[in-house]
């Protein structure tokens, strides 16, 4: 009864080595990002190593752009790796070497079955209600029977009786009857290694002690255990993590919204908020919802990963991101907002805006949930006169409101000290003198200064815009 190692903690020498092994056929999928995070947290928790392997054996779909997108997504998330990335395709000769070793030891064999034979075999098995895997027709056949001019594949001799047990640290013990695990291909007829062979050889050669990956690989684990044991290699500890579903319970897909890590960055999420949120997707530490990366490293363990799929909730992510924005350094947020304005929104923004953004940030970030919110909230800083009024601002600026602005203008023009305290004192004194509630003055001011009805505190807006620009915008709208 082959079984995987039950150890979910470090090996005897104390070394933990995990890996993340994406295929470079597109962006860093958010599900893959969570798998990478779990592997990274586990390695960091035990003071071990986290490795990166690019599984680029599909040469028709693998691209350099996708490789760079994976690197960039990992860097943005702060998931650093400890050794140079391994590129699987570059190791294909090593993979073939292992297959040929198994062949020489009688643990693998050459199969000359044609595609037509295999299709006929599957159809017959289907009609008879039997498993549709390969039936082992060349397993014990004399190689002398091989047809001329046919390049064979090399298949692993899987056990035919008994069962294979995967001692999984998320799913529990999973038992696979060996009669449903067919003799799978190690080397194709062109001599190229299959995914199943390459993964096992690379995990062994890289010294991986813990394989943390999606539960869509659970069946693969049973096949891989038998290959590992055929080579006499240690079996790593397995942890197969459930998939991420969308809010509707279906598997997370493009129709649910952003998919790649870089898309979440461009939507305005902070990496530390993403780490916090992804860690809580399927893993928990009591009732803790908001925690630092350092706390996640301290607390993380495979035993707290749930067996059920987690649901991605964009509203929860936005709320969590808002918490992190309010705690973030204003200078950093200003730089992130500038990047959003320029690189994502394509706005023409002068470098001089940075200082104003930093000054305005305490007010801007109070209600913002994303960097995009900060950019939209700071739009008044780069607006040019005369301002375009949105519908609500236009409606608010009726004759009475414009009259209030006209009355306030001399009080502001007469100020000697254009400071936050001085501005607030002047506006409040005007409202009191005219027997107006502060909102009756602040609302028209906000519309005149920003072109909208929402903004940071109005005194902050006046201070950040400065005397000349503030007075000019008010004059544009005053009766």
From TrEMBL:
Which Gene3D superfamilies does the annotation name? 1.10.10.350, HUPs
* Aminoacyl-tRNA synthetase class I anticodon-binding domain sequence ranges: 353-476
User: Could you tell me one molecular function GO term of this UniProt entry?
Assistant: tRNA binding
Catalytic activity, reaction form = tRNA(Glu) + L-glutamate + ATP = L-glutamyl-tRNA(Glu) + AMP + diphosphate
**'KMSKS' region: where is this motif?**
251-255
Chain residues that bind ATP: 254
Cell inner membrane as UniProt keyword: no
Major place of localization? cytoplasm
Cell location: Cytoplasm
The reply to whether Protein biosynthesis figures as a keyword in the UniProt entry is: yes
Q: Where is this region: Disordered?
A: 126-145
Q: Which GO terms describe its biological process?
A: glutamyl-tRNA aminoacylation
Pfam families in the cross-refs:
Anticodon_2, tRNA-synt_1c
Q: Which PANTHER family match?
A: GLUTAMATE--TRNA LIGASE, GLUTAMATE--TRNA LIGASE, MITOCHONDRIAL-RELATED
Subunit: Monomer.
Instruction: Please report which protein family the annotation says this sequence is part of.
Output: Belongs to the class-I aminoacyl-tRNA synthetase family. Glutamate--tRNA ligase type 1 subfamily.
NCBIfam families, from UniProt?
gltX_bact (TIGR00464)
Listed HAMAP family? Glu_tRNA_synth_type1 (MF_00022)
Q: What is this protein called?
A: Glutamate--tRNA ligase
Instruction: Give the organism, scientific name.
Output: Pyruvatibacter mobilis
Q: Which gene encodes it?
A: gltX
